[in-house]
Structure formats: structure tokens, C-alpha cells
Amino acid sequence: MSTPGLENELKRLIVETLALEDVDPEKIEPEAALFVEGLGLDSIDALELAMALEERYGVQIGEDPELNQAIFASVRSLAAFVDEARHR
Amino acid sequence: MRPATARPEDPVAFERGAVVRRAEFEARVDELAGRIAAAGAGRWLVVSERGLETAVALLALARAGGVAVLPPNRQPETLRRLGAGTRGALPRDAPARGRPLEARAPDREAPWVELYTSGTTGEPRRHLKRVRHLEDEVATLEAVFGSAVPAGAPVFASVPPHHIYGLLFRALWPLAAGRPFHSESLLHVQEILARMARVEACALVSTPVHLRHMAAGGGLRALRGRCRAVFSSAGPLDADTAKAVAECLGVSPFEILGSTETGGVALRQRSVHGESWRPLPGVRIERGEDGTLIVSSPFASEGEPAGGGASRFRMGDRVELEHGGGFRLLGRADREVKIAGLRLSLPAMERALEQHAWVAEAVLLARERGGETRVAAALVPSAAGRAALARHGRRAVGAALAEHLAADFDPVLRPRSWRYVDGLPRNAQGKVPRAAVEALFRAGPADGAERGLRAGPADGAERGLRAGPAARRRERWLRVPADLPALEGHFEGHPVVPGVAQLGWVMEEAAALLGSDPRVRGFEALKFPTPLRPGDAALLRVELEGPVLRFWLGEGERVFASGRCVVDAGGGETP
């Protein structure tokens, strides 16, 4: 899947998994921060999102906290990670 | 905080793959203590997610006679507020030089650590721990749990070191017991599992949220035999997760009950104690007249003096005492909840919301979603708030209100659902009935439920039928006539519409929705919170979702009936 397609899929996944209300997936900016600022997600969301990625795409994040923080920074960074992990 | 047998080469902490040994750790503490002393001790902010940095700062402060101020989160507003009146943040703002201070036994009565929780006013509330409070609790932890963790086994943690549980279990206790600890606070399951898989034996200091996710994935089983002890605190661990963790690891988690005011109070290991809690040694418990737990403990830093250095403190948990000294918890007596281990006073957040110009009135609920507790906010907007909703939309208004709360509350405590209503129902005691607000959130945002809570029909007249989208929902206002046959025999002088009659109306409405008489297979979650009387007007709403019919009968201030049932559509076709 092309990256824009994957990004849109991830936006919907985020909104559905986390039951975000009043959020239109299409209006999530791919570069906007997901956590604290921007979409305002928190640590519980991070855990749920990691599990959803594993279920949906069969990809698992690694053990490096700083790298994981970078992966979960935005929809764009998430898409890049999923895309790369799937083709590994 | 130093075991008698400590050797200079013993590892104290692991950080980013490097080992910090006792000699280096002590040297860091000596050096920082000297710098603090050069500034004349005083109160210092300690802002770090890392156990090592926090431990060095705390021990240096103890040595220099200073006090650590541990902010509950890293929000700029929190740091600004708590930073005022301190000498700055450690180690950054300490003088560059000082004479290293040699270790000495600290004064046990000296103030040592200030912890903060969200208070009932919205202001963070300060809790001062003296040296003896923490020292005595650490000694007790080792006496109770020491044998469960092999000597030298490292301690991993998914909780930060700036709350009481993390501070004790992942930093001070390991330090005093000569067990190395991992400095990082690990968020993701993979981060935790991968590190634990590389050691022979270890212990995990965690929370229900993390354990639930770890047990759900497959990785925990691989740690059987390695992870020798699991600690869970900062909220109730559900029985299923406790069981799943025990099955994976072969050890049942130690659950710890405690609070910032009291420190550790009781423990439970479900394989041994079932649902029953056992007080920690030295802790006495009573049941107060109001049914809540009263704790007398040498670790408690608040409450009335109880002799021998102990304090007697009333916790908000309702309790049932058992024979043999154990007790069971029956839930909170007040409107205080825990989310991801953080305490939240709902009234405090309601007041904070009501300080915003867009909010006239706020009522919060703690709701379960996916096993986690989350806050939901029902608001009556002010005129300015209504204008903002019209101009900027719900999402922007919710985001702005969340931002407003960020000054006082951790992000994880923010409301996740927002409903905007014209008025909030109050009962005779002036309280907002939970069921009425709950009904708002059970439906999606911006649909009929918000309308349902409005002040009700201005004239009380029936408004006739209203079909919901795609006729999957129907709404109808009805008024109870004084001569309703069902009222006969129902409480002379106090006529009340029996529940069965209310369900009759629900079935009539369901038949209209389905186009045939429904066959009902049992009611669920059936409630009649408020008696329905002659003359009452009420909105009846039925909603079909697959085979499940949900219904709600209520008016502005009251919910008369709510519930759901599974229906067969009979012979008719659903539109």
C-alpha cells in the first residue's frame, strides 16, 4: 500500500482503537504530534495503539524507548515504521 | 539507604546499557550533596523519569539536610507552580562546586520528600515525608517481600519514580536491599519484556494497565522462571489479569494497597489470599463509623497522632473487616478515582472546568472503557460556550477545555468524552443522578441523548412521534394520566407507575419500530432509578442495534427506566 493510503488507514485505526470522539480521521494532520500536544493521546493510548498495530499489521515495536517515542510521534512516523516493518 | 554488606563493586543501577556501581553511585551522591550544602540546603525540585537520577538527588538531599520536591507530572504549569519557592531544579541549578559531604546517619525526623497529588481544590496537594516514614517502610518491604526476590536480581519498573509507589519499590527499597534497579521508566510492553528476557532472575514493579497488556500478548510466558516477583499497585488489578499473569509466570502478583498519605497499607496475593487484603506488619486497620477504612501506621505522614510515631488516617475506601485480621474493599465512598495510577478528585476537576468562561456547569463521570477508567464530561455551556461551539465546533471546544485543564491535571486524567447539554438534572438532594448522565455517554456524541437531557417539554404536551435516523430509533414524549389503570393498587396515596407498565410502553414503541410485535428474550441492565408518577412527562426512546433494543425513559432531571433486551422481529420486516 502506498504511504498516503497507509496513513489514512492508520488515522482510522487510531480513531477507532482509541474511541476518539469528535475527531474526524481525515482531519488528522500526518505530521501533527499524537501525544500530549496535537491529538492529545496519553500513555494508556500508547499501549493500546501498540497492541492494535500488532493485531492489524503483525508488526511489533522494539525495545528502545527513545526509538519507540519517535515511532509514535505522528501518523507519518507510524506509517513509515509499519511500512518498513512489514517489508522486513 | 545502604545495605550493611554493600561492596564498592556491587551494581546499583543500570542505565542505557551501562552499570553504575556502588562506589560511583556514592561518589555522585557525595558530590551533589556538597553542591546542595554550598547553596545552604533548602527545597529543590527533582524532575526526572529516571530512577538513578532521582535516587542520587534524594540521597544527596538527605545527606545535606535538604528536601526533595517531586512534581506529579512535567506539565510546564506544574513545574512553574511547584518550582516557585524552591532553590531550583537538581542537579541543574545547584552550585557548580561544593565540598563533597561524607555519609552520615540522617536525622530520622528531618523532612525529606514532598510528594504531590491532585487535591480537592484543583491545586496540587503536598504530602511531606520525613526520613523515618520512608526508611521504616523500606525496612518493612524487605522483611515482607525480600525472600521473594533473589539477592542481586535487578528490579524493572513501568512506573515513574516520582509517585510514592515507584519511589519506594523501584528506587529506595532496591537501594537499601542491595538490589540493582533499571533506571528507565519503561512504557511499552516490548521494552519491558526484552530487558527482562536477558537476565537470569528479576522483579517487576508495575501497574494493572501494564500487566493487562503484558498478559494479553504472548511474551510474558517466556519469562517464566526469570521474573520471580511482580508487584502491582496504583489501582485495582482485575482478577482475570492477576490469574493470567500467574499462569504465565508461575508466580501470583503481589498487589499493594496504599496511598500517598499512608504509604503501603496492605498486600494481597490472589493465589494465597483470594480477594482478602492483609495489613502490612506495623499497620493497624479499623472500620470507621461511616464504613470506610482507617489506617494507623508508622509510614503514614498525615492524620492524627496514634502513638509510637504512627499516624491515624481515614482513607476513602469502603471496607468490610474479616475474621483473622484481613479485610475486603467495597469501592470508594467519595468521588475519587484512579486512572493509570493517578488519583483524581472529580469534584476538583469539575470546579476547574467551571472556572473556564465557556462552562456554566460541569459534571464528570468515571467510565470503564476497554478495561481502563476514563473521565467523561457533561457540560452546560455558558452563552460564550454556546457561541464557541457554534463557531469552532465540538472538537475545538473539547481541545481548548482539555488545554485549560492541563495546568492542573495530568494528561491521562483529561476527559475523553464531552457532552454539551442545556441543563443538568438534579434530584431533591441537589445531586446529579449518575444514571441520567451515564445515558448521555452510552449514546454517541451529538445525537439524541444530549437532546434527551434538555429541560424537557416546555408545556408538557406530547410531542408526537419522532423517528430516528433510518428508523432505527424512535422517540416519543408521553404523559402519565392520573387515571392510568396500572396505577391501581400501587401504593395507596403514593401512586407510582409499575415497571411492567413502563416496559409495556417500551414494547409498544419497539413494535412500531420493528413493524411487528417483538419477541423479547430477557431484559438486561434493567433499572428504574426514579419513581414515575401521574402527571409526569417523559421522553421514551427506543433504539435498535442488531438484535439489541436499548431503551430510556426520562425527563430533564430524571431517569425513570433504562435497559436493553434482545428482540426477535417476529414475522415483520424491520424498515
List keywords for this structure.
heterodimer, A: 88 residues, mainly alpha, Non-ribosomal Peptide Synthetase Peptidyl Carrier Protein, Chain A, 4 helices, 0% strand, globular, B: 575 residues, alpha/beta, GMP Synthetase, Chain A, domain 3, Thiol Ester Dehydrase, Chain A, six-stranded mixed sheet, six-stranded antiparallel sheet, 15 helices, 30 strands, 28% helix, elongated, disordered C terminus
What can you tell me about this protein's structure?
The complex is a heterodimer of chains A (88) and B (575). With 88 residues, chain A is mainly α. Chain A has 4 helices and no strands. Chain A has one domain: Orthogonal Bundle (Non-ribosomal Peptide Synthetase Peptidyl Carrier Protein, Chain A), CATH 1.10.1200. Chain A is 56% helix and 0% strand. The model of chain A has no long low-confidence stretch (mean pLDDT 89). Chain B is of the alpha/beta class and 575 residues long. Chain B has 15 helices and 30 strands. Chain B has a 6-stranded mixed sheet with strand order 8-10-11-12-13-14, with helices on both faces. Chains A and B meet through helix 2 of A and helix 6, helix 7, helix 12 and strand 24 of B.
Brief account:
Chain A has 88 residues and is mostly helical. Chain A has one domain (3-86): Non-ribosomal Peptide Synthetase Peptidyl Carrier Protein, Chain A, CATH 1.10.1200.10.
